[in-house]
Specification:
Number of strands: 2
Radius of gyration: 16 Å
Strand order of the largest sheet: 1-2
Order of helices and strands: HHEHEHHHHH
Helix content: 55-70%
């Protein structure tokens, strides 16, 4: 189970610069990603400790709510790792595939423990819980890290409700979200991968 080794306060104080586009190679983005990694690893490790199992990234993770509940129950009984999807994890707002897998573990565990299915309403409820947890952890509202997480949690839930597919390049979508706003980021993603 990966541990959080970074906890930077730099991005908690950083806000998106007015009139200046943010790119993935900017120090402010890298600092925000470090904070997001800290948050998701802390949350995932806390949930793993609380429930008695961790996670393993696989290509064939549960894709329906009933399958997730079944796998969660099996992990709870046996202590074996919960399978989480490794799909679309190379370019994320968290900066590493491993951090994205930790987020998916936390996301899946909270789906089951909160009784939230995969419908758009429940995804939005869970997205709001993630934002609250991030703020309680120390991600400052309005910071770059906060906006990137908002793009991942709320933006992707809205995108899926609209397009019925997942965002392919989550970091690109997150940067669009910060740079041009939610409405334009959603439209840009639809146009970028209109397949």
């Amino acid at each position: 189970m990966p541990k959080n080794t970074q906890n930077s306060a730099q991005s908690r104080a950083a806000t998106p610069p007015s009139g200046q586009l943010l790119t993935a190679d900017r120090p402010a983005i890298r600092a925000a990603q470090a904070d997001l990694r800290g948050f998701v690893f802390d949350l995932a490790n806390d949930l793993a400790t609380r429930h008695g199992f961790d996670w393993n990234s696989v290509p064939d993770a549960p894709s329906t709510y009933s399958d997730l509940k079944r796998c969660f129950a099996a992990s709870k009984t046996t202590g074996q790792s919960l399978p989480v999807s490794d799909d679309n994890s190379s370019a994320t707002v968290f900066g590493t595939p491993e951090a994205n897998h930790a987020l998916r573990f936390a996301h899946d565990v909270l789906h089951v423990t909160n009784g939230l299915s995969f419908n758009p309403r429940d995804e939005y409820v869970l997205a709001c819980e993630f934002m609250d947890r991030a703020e309680n952890w120390g991600i400052r509202r309005g910071s770059i890290a906060w906006y990137l997480l908002l793009s991942d949690a709320v933006g992707q839930a809205l995108f899926y409700a609209v397009a019925k597919r997942y965002v392919k390049d989550q970091l690109h979508f997150g940067l669009d979200f910060v740079n041009i706003g939610l409405h334009r980021a959603l439209l840009a993603e639809v146009k970028r991968h209109n397949d």
